[in-house]
Write a structure and sequence with these properties.
The chain is an alpha+beta fold and 153 residues long. Helices cover 29% and strands 35% of the residues. The chain has a seven-stranded mixed beta sheet with strand order 1-2-3-4-5-7-6, sandwiched between helices. It is globular, with a radius of gyration of 14 Å.
Length: 153
């Protein structure tokens, strides 16, 4: 099982090449894999990286303050991270708890593309619930997204 470590911008750059990101066959994704974007993520709020037992960075995730007490989550996951899906899920649950605590969030929300089935299953497995809200024509890709959230207990 891998572990959670502090996010660093070079972790994002390591997993950003399109052929490495998990898209579950979904077409039309565009990811800004630039150093500038990595630095923006690093400054935007609490974040973590998932490191495999072999020492490779296979996922990065974090949250940006949306409103006081509400964080907007983001994640980029390498396809190879799903080889140990149980370990990935366990680590992300710990990471999300850390994001909520560190960010002082009572709600952490994120969107997942409506056509990205594995992403939706993963969101459920790590403890996010579907808010039953579909955001039409959302984001830079103009694809429908589903809103998920994790609430503090």
């Amino acid at each position: 099982m891998g572990d959670i470590i502090q996010f660093e911008p070079d972790h994002f750059l390591a997993i950003c090449p399109r052929e490495r990101l998990d898209t579950d066959g979904v077409e039309g994704w565009s990811v800004n894999g630039s150093l500038e974007h990595a630095l923006t993520l690093a400054k935007s709020g609490p974040a973590f990286s998932y490191r495999s037992t072999q020492g490779e960075i296979l996922a990065v995730s974090g949250a940006t303050l949306f409103w006081p007490g509400v964080g907007w989550g983001w994640a980029f996951i390498d396809k190879r991270a799903f080889v140990d899906a149980a370990g990935l899920v366990h680590a992300f649950k710990r990471g999300i708890a850390g994001l909520m605590s560190e960010g002082g969030f009572h709600r952490l929300q994120a969107t997942v593309r409506a056509d990205y089935d594995r992403g939706q299953r993963f969101a459920h497995l790590v403890g996010l619930t579907d808010d039953i809200v579909t955001l039409k024509n959302f984001g830079q890709d103009r694809i429908d997204h589903i809103l998920f959230a994790k609430l503090a207990r």
